[in-house]
Amino acid sequence: MAASSAGMRTVVCNFNRQITIYHPRINTQNAYNNVCIRGLCTSTPRYQSQPQIKKKSAVRELVGVVGLEIHAQIHSSTKLFSGSQVGFFAPPNSQVSFFDASLPGTLPALNRRCVEAAVMTGLALDCTINRKSLFDRKHYFYADLPPISTQRRELPSLSSDVGEPPTDGIGADPKAAGYQITQQRVPIAVGGTLRYGHLIGRKQGQVVAKSVRIKQIQLEQDSGKSLHDDSRSQTLIDLNRAGVALMELVMEPDMSCGEEAAAAVRELQLILQALGTCQGNMAEGQLRVDANVSVHRPGDPLGVRTEVKNINSARFLARAIDYEIERQMELLATGGTVQNETRAFDYKSGQTIPMRDKEGLQDYRFMPEPNLPPLIVYDSETAPPPAGEDPGQVVLIDAVRKSIPELPSARRARLVNTFGILPEHSYTLVSEDGLTDYFEGVARETRAPPKKAIGWVMKDVLGLLKQQGLSVSQSPISPRALAELLDLLEAGRVSSSAAKMVLQELWKGTGRSPAQVVEDLDLGLVDDSTEIQRICLSVINSHPEEVRASRSGNRKVVNKLVGLVQKQTKGRADPVRIRAILEEGQQGSVVAGEPCGTGLEQELEREREREQELEQEQEREQGAGSREQEQELEQGAGTGAGAGSRSRSRSREQAHWCRGCAFVFGGELVISAFGEVPLGP
């Protein structure tokens, strides 16, 4: 054994790679920072190139079959069978107890918190909780796990709470004991269902309900971490993760593509986060996914599967599965065979690459764990604990069931039923941490309808948060402030464009209220009808080409004219009001006008009554006419006080700002009661 540098101990393994154990008390930081982690955990050479798979496979009759195995790190301050602390950013090998290092004579002590987390997760997924579950040993023989009986290795430093380590002993690698404690025969939960929504369509605007069966949930230990330095042919070992509690969720092969699998993982991530049983941070390895992928013809037995290991992103999961399905289809189309192997996903190339042959159950050599008794959980009603049992060591299923919070599916249903929002909007609200509470806070405080509030929350506030990389809790605009801004908009005190400007000012975090910002920047809505009509007249007369295009049916040109008016009013005029004036004014040139008086309003009502009487009389004479006849009646000219009203169906709100306007028609000044004057020659 030779020391490669200060603070390191190096051994040469039987596959011609080095394993380096760091000692944090001896100059480890510099050496640790110099590690170049490239490549994968493999003892065989990496494939440098892979054939590019065509996206459109010729084997159309084959379909993909996908099952998942998900390892969720339980949110607990200590490990599954030891008192060592859990911390992602801790120095290497600084959170390792004697048991984690597999010292002879150490025994496991089960963490009660981890059992409760597994029971709660099983209940949330409609699983059956086994009152009695068993622990097993699962043996590994990987390239980074040399036979411990033939090799001596230096121990890492151990946690300070268990004292100083001995100077010599059996060694430390990712699984120093040569086995992992898990639950193979009788897991803690079986037979559940994960229901999730799959967004489809061009803009993923349609939600399709899906479900996948949960085969089992089992408790098990995590392994240590191998950090590979290909440039120096070294593998660095960190045992901080060894012994951390995991829930392994095994899903049946009920999915057919990468997007379905990614949607299922995202839903599970939300459920675990809502329960508090797993933080679900995939970047820190708290949620790792193995995908089992095969292809077959519908009705035939399932094909040979490959396993794609340790994918830590839902997006990468979808890419890896879709690539693997296409690869297997192309392989079968060219006369090849699919190998039962373990593969890894290279996110840079978007390809899966071989790692090793897939192990079978006989390779794991499962055997009962002799140092742990059966795990017993109780139910106060059906299976109460025996008398004299220590309450601190008892897990009650009914007590855990009562503590389950609102799950994402229930929250989405409540949002849709309570506020009338679209289902796809509810998915966005629930998927963003804290966004549901933010929206509900706005909806409770504002007088604006929820459908308007959801637009501002999802498009404006969430858009600004995404641009600046902030979480919802870091938003400088509180729900109360946004609700006040929506109230100003709803009351007609500001225009929509001015409200956007107010939102930008509020984002600066000056502490001013929306009303103060409106006053300081003079963004209040212009109420002077004469002034707005004067500006509309100016825009219409100065843009004859746009007016002609609008008359020929190009409705998009009206948006440009509205924008020009808004520019002159600095966003202080109501765009709906502007549009109504412009659409009416394009029949002539607006020169003056005010909202109509009471007499003209009464004349309008009398005109509508006469049209209704005429329509009823003709219906009695002709019976149920066709739709074309009804449209002709609606467009027929009545004997109103104005010149040529063409539609009785115009709403009062639309006509209000047009009636009483003066138009130049045929060289004469004509007053229109209903706002639409036919063009003269």
From TrEMBL:
Reactions accelerated catalytically: L-glutamyl-tRNA(Gln) + L-glutamine + ATP + H2O = L-glutaminyl-tRNA(Gln) + L-glutamate + ADP + phosphate + H(+); L-aspartyl-tRNA(Asn) + L-glutamine + ATP + H2O = L-asparaginyl-tRNA(Asn) + L-glutamate + ADP + phosphate + 2 H(+)
Record carries keyword Ligase: yes
GO MF terms, alphabetically ordered: ATP binding; glutaminyl-tRNA synthase (glutamine-hydrolyzing) activity
Primary site of residence: mitochondrion
GO biological process, alphabetically ordered: glutaminyl-tRNAGln biosynthesis via transamidation; mitochondrial translation
Alphabetized InterPro entries for the sequence: Asn/Gln-tRNA_amidoTrfase_suB/E, Asn/Gln-tRNA_Trfase_suB/E_cat, Asn/Gln_amidotransferase, Asn/Gln_tRNA_amidoTrase-B-like, GatB, GatB_Yqey_C_2, Gln_synth/guanido_kin_cat_dom
Keywords (A to Z) from UniProt: ATP-binding, Ligase, Mitochondrion, Nucleotide-binding, Protein biosynthesis
EC number: 6.3.5.-
Role description: Allows the formation of correctly charged Gln-tRNA(Gln) through the transamidation of misacylated Glu-tRNA(Gln) in the mitochondria. The reaction takes place in the presence of glutamine and ATP through an activated gamma-phospho-Glu-tRNA(Gln).
Quaternary structure annotation from Swiss-Prot or TrEMBL: Subunit of the heterotrimeric GatCAB amidotransferase (AdT) complex, composed of A (QRSL1), B (GATB) and C (GATC) subunits.
Protein name, UniProt field: Glutamyl-tRNA(Gln) amidotransferase subunit B, mitochondrial
Organism annotation: Aldrovandia affinis
Gene: GATB
